[in-house]
Amino acid sequence: MKDTTPQPKRVLVTGVSKRQDNFDYTMIELGELAKANNLNVVGEVRQNVDQANHATYFGKGKVQEIKEQAIADDVDIILINDELSPSQIRNLEKELGISILDRTQLILEIFANRAQTKEAQLQVAIAEAKYQLPRLHPSDNKLDQQNGGGGGTNRGTGETQLELDRRLIDKRITKLKGELAKIDQQQATQRQQRDKNPVPVVALVGYTNAGKSTTMNRILQRLSPDTPEKQVFEKNMLFATLDTSVREITLPNQQKFLLSDTVGFVSKLPHHLVQAFKATLAEAAGADLLIHVVDYSDPNYLNMMQTTQETLESLGIKDIPMIEAYNKADLKPDTRYPEIDGTQLVFSARDEVSIDALIDLIDKQLFGQYPIIDFLIPYTEGQAVTYLSDHVNILEQSYEEDGTHIKAQINPDLLGPVQKYTMTTD
Ligand SMILES: Nc1nc2c(ncn2[C@@H]2O[C@H](COP(=O)(O)OP(=O)(O)OP(=O)(O)O)[C@@H](O)[C@H]2O)c(=O)[nH]1
Ligand SMILES: [Mg+2]
Q1: Which of the four pLDDT bands, split at 50, 70 and 90, describes residue 362?
Q2: Residue 2 pLDDT
Q3: Residue 120, annotated ligand binder?
């Protein structure tokens, strides 16, 4: 019987180096992104020049070389390591006679395939529409047809069709943004409510597949083992997480914080996507502490760290205290873990001792600066004792003649209800 399962499309990974230091790495990553979207990488062509060609991205000779290799390897799609201009895509497709997929389109497709929640779907749809808008071409007669191909022969009627298509996409963007704004508003309200209750927020950030979700799950397992439903999705694939999940964590010393998992980054993350995910990343923007999770076992981890830093900065996320958490140490030969050096931690999310070390570090970073205060609470005011045991780190507790004596490390913002029981030490 004939096998009817569709074969994955065959792609040629191509790019112009532009003398970038991390070019090699971005090409390897492009291949990984292709595989993540079920494409079959059959070869690679590079051009080592300072600048991409304005009209066709590659120079004339290179275009010919790509064409020959594509025919020889029976290639369906030419994948390009940059976001191309609309005319570059058109010209190149015309010369090659093969479909072009640029890096941005590929990342958008992966995001679109992964998006589970309404919010993520809207964010991706907005980014896609914005990408499409300047790329509409008079010869395209369907909105969802990408890179129409062929020349624009039908100028007269095409022009009006183009205007119409643009208006339709504009309208679509406005509508999607409206829907997204409603969801964002709900979340902003939730955040505001939380802000009234001054529990610090810790956000896990970093490159895709670094182990952010795994780290979150292991911390939850250590500290809330009875609530497996709090676990988030973790998987060995690029962009497993597209939504922000927030969980409340209570430390053994009763201090509480909110831990948030966020979308992962990748090099050359499309601008429209970064903008579209801004609201999702608001959790990180408002955090008191960031945990930058790094896949330390990846030879390119330094590039990945730099990309993460740059992406955070492009989102205006800076000047937030950060723990650098070098993960997957179990996969890196001759590496001792857990090892702490200031705010840097070499660890493995799969190792309990490591997770305890990370929890300790978070505790110190968040609460280490809090003052230690003595309270004397009359026996008639039991609710004040309950308040303290629920909210603060009690260091000592004793029962004296005139009430309960409690020595505690406390967030000054939480002092209000128990202020009157503080003991002056003079
Ligand atoms: N060996 C090993 N594997 C790990 C470790 N931490 C995470 N992983 C694996 O790495 C893969 C990616 O982990 P995730 O936690 O989903 O990564 P993420 O950073 O949330 O990725 P995105 O959601 O795609 O941004 C999974 O297969 C994990 O099991 C570790 O310390 N050691
Ligand atoms: Mg994740």
Answers
A1: very high
A2: 60
A3: no
Q: Is the CB of 381 under 6 A from ligand 1?
A: no
Residue 409: how many other CB atoms lie within 10 Å: 17
What class is the 10-109 domain?
alpha beta
CATH architecture of 198-367: 3-Layer(aba) Sandwich (3.40)
55 annotated binding-site participant: no
241 ligand 1 Cβ < 6 A: yes
Q: In angstroms, how far is CA 242 from the centroid of its own chain?
A: 7
The tens digit of pLDDT for each residue in 178-233 reads 999 998 888 888 777 766 667 889 999 999 999 999 999 999 999 988 778 888 88
57 close to ligand 1 (CB < 6 Angstrom): no
- Over residues 3-19, the mean pLDDT reads 89
